[in-house]
């Protein structure tokens, strides 16, 4: 891209953001939210909180195990904080894996020390620390997909050129 066009695009993007700010009268416009990822982050938090309510259901053992592993390994509790479990479980308890000293029914004892940091923050940190690895994995998958398409097109042209037809 030519440098002069890049400057024009940057100016246009800034202008669009300021127009959105003027229109909505605040800095949290739809364009600004899209650029900063706030909406995605809020939706992810809400989805995770909705998932907490399914923790004790019988047909979601995988979900329960996932939460237990994440909370134990990353020393976190809930989505934002351990109090998220109070809303989800409809009582002032947390899963035992939220306890700093883990033992049977430790999450029911209100005097225990729970991990206060939410798991969403820990996940964001993990993603930030591993963004290069995740990007590399994504690029490898992209290359494999592109090679697959190229080989399928080559095969298609080869079959088409030889005049072979599929007989049902």
From TrEMBL:
Question: SUPFAM superfamilies, alphabetically?
Answer: Tetraspanin
Alphabetically ordered keywords of this record = Glycoprotein, Membrane, Transmembrane, Transmembrane helix
Q: What is the native source organism of this protein?
A: Gambusia affinis (Western mosquitofish)
Q: Does the keyword Membrane apply?
A: yes
Q: How does it sit in the membrane?
A: Multi-pass membrane protein
| Pfam families to which the protein is assigned, alphabetical | Tetraspanin
Q: Does the keyword Magnesium apply?
A: no
Note the InterPro entries from the entry: Tetraspanin/Peripherin, Tetraspanin_EC2_sf
Locate the transmembrane regions by residue number: 133-156
What is the protein name given in its UniProt record? Tetraspanin-9
State where the protein is found: Membrane
Q: Name one GO cellular component term.
A: plasma membrane
Family in the record: Belongs to the tetraspanin (TM4SF) family.
What Gene3D superfamilies does this protein's entry cite?
Tetraspanin (1.10.1450.10)
């Amino acid at each position: 891209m030519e440098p002069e066009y890049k400057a024009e695009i940057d100016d246009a993007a800034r202008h669009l953001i300021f127009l959105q700010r003027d229109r909505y009268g605040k800095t949290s416009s739809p364009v600004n939210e899209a650029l900063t990822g706030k909406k995605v982050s809020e939706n992810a938090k809400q989805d995770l909180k909705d998932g907490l309510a399914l923790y004790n259901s019988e047909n979601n053992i995988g979900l329960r195990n996932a939460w237990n592993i994440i909370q134990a390994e990353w020393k976190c509790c809930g989505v934002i904080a351990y109090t998220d479990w109070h809303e989800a479980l409809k009582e002032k308890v947390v899963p035992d894996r939220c306890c700093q000293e883990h033992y049977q029914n430790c999450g029911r004892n209100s005097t225990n020390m729970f991990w206060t940091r939410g798991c969403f923050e820990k996940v964001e940190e993990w993603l930030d620390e591993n963004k290069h690895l995740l990007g590399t994995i994504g690029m490898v998958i992209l290359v494999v997909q592109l090679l697959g398409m190229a080989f399928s097109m080559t095969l298609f042209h080869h079959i088409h050129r030889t005049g072979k037809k599929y007989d049902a």
